[in-house]
Specification:
Layout lengths: L7 H135 L4 H14 L4
Length: 164
């Protein structure tokens, strides 16, 4: 049983040895160990704060990227709107120009038609006058005594006349 219960001397020397080891460890080893643990804790805290700063910077970059994207979209929309307005203006101008040209063509065509109509009327008047003179000449040459003969002669001559 003596193996299971230690003696007083053993406890005394173990306590003294433990105290010396404890003193030596506290004097020489604890400070470097605690300093290295403190440095490790500080480096972990610094790494965490750097990661937090990096996350905040990434959030700021995301926000800036989103703002740039929104500005680009707004610029694209503005450019599309301007292009649409320019297209509408060009179409309106082309339509107006085409209408003006069409109106000028119609006006000149009407004038040409009116001129041709007057020329045709003048030519018709001239032909009627010539035909009247020819008819009168033929009537006077024939000197018809009977009115029915004169009317039949005039009708025959009218049928034989061709208008150009």
């Amino acid at each position: 049983m003596q193996l299971v219960t230690p003696g007083i001397g053993l406890i005394f020397w173990m306590t003294i040895t433990f105290s010396i080891v404890l003193f030596l460890l506290s004097k020489f080893a604890w400070k470097p160990i605690l300093n290295s643990i403190k440095e490790r804790e500080d480096s972990i805290n610094n790494a965490l704060s750097a990661a937090d700063d990096a996350r905040k910077a990434m959030d700021a970059l995301k926000s800036d990227n989103q703002k740039l994207l929104n500005e680009a979209r707004a610029e694209r929309d503005r450019m599309l709107k301007e292009a649409s307005e320019m297209k509408d203006q060009i179409i309106a101008k082309a339509t107006k120009d085409a209408k003006d040209v069409g109106d000028k063509l119609i006006t000149s065509a009407k004038e040409a038609i009116e001129k041709e109509k007057l020329n045709a009327l003048n030519e018709l008047k001239t032909q009627v006058a010539v035909l009247s003179v020819d008819m009168a000449e033929k009537i006077l040459r024939k000197k018809m005594e009977d009115r029915s003969q004169q009317e039949s002669f005039v009708n025959d001559n009218l049928k034989s006349i061709t208008l150009n």
